[in-house]
Amino acid sequence: MSLKNTIDWNDFEQVEMRAGTIIAVLDFPEARKPAYKVTVDFGPDVGIKRTSAQITSLYTKEELLGRQVIGVVNFPVKQIGPFLSEFLIAGFYRDDGSVVLAIPDKSIDNGAKLA
């Protein structure tokens, strides 16, 4: 396996990865690939943010509600069709292209920063 780039610790410290709880999931029929519009509460310091996520093949809307996830919250807003994505939900690609969410394995406060 080859890594794309080596970064230093200061680069990593600039990435704001926070825990949050999914509070709403809607279909995103305008997306080119199947996706949901996901709303996450990242606590009082970060607030509520929305993103588009291509996670429909492994997760239903119902099972995502209330689940804690990890998100990169300091990216600039990105236009995805008619939708503004405000953060990146973290996950891992499988060989078939589906995405498995990166999630905390114990409950933590919304807004907790990745250590």
UniProtKB/TrEMBL annotation:
One of its GO terms (molecular function) is tRNA binding. Gene3D superfamilies: Nucleic acid-binding proteins. The keyword Ligase does not apply. Keywords: RNA-binding, tRNA-binding. InterPro entries: CsaA, NA-bd_OB-fold, tRNA-bd_dom. Pfam families: tRNA_bind. The keyword Oxidoreductase does not apply. It comes from Rhodopirellula maiorica SM1. PROSITE patterns: TRBD (PS50886). CDD domains: tRNA_bind_CsaA. Residues 11-115 form the TRNA-binding domain. This is Secretion chaperone CsaA.
